[in-house]
Write the structure tokens for this entry.
Amino acid sequence: MMELYERRQVEQVTGLTDNLVRSWCEQGFIRPTISGGGTGHRRQFDREVLLVIAVLGSIRELFGPRLRPGGIAPHVRRAVHAWVCDPDPVSNFITIAATPHVELLVDVGALNRSIIAKLS
């Protein structure tokens, strides 16, 4: 059974505020596992989506709080999904094309270990 995490856990694990994560969801940068539409229903996220949020948060740390992840979010989702489906036993890194001329190398393995530790 897949574990699901609510907004407080997302905030605890990623350090990103609930308002920011909610905004990213509303703008389509992040896709909750369970959308939580309606009163009393909360968004829930699986481990893969937590990794996407963590990667976007790491990129935001590099580029500052004005970063709007619209252009890179699809690349992050694809790269994280590929890593989750087939983690590279040699390298825990994923490459994100931030712009046509800039690629980011993200240690998704370290982010995953950090998430596991913080949820324990």
About this structure: The CA atoms of residues 13 and 116 lie 9 Å apart.
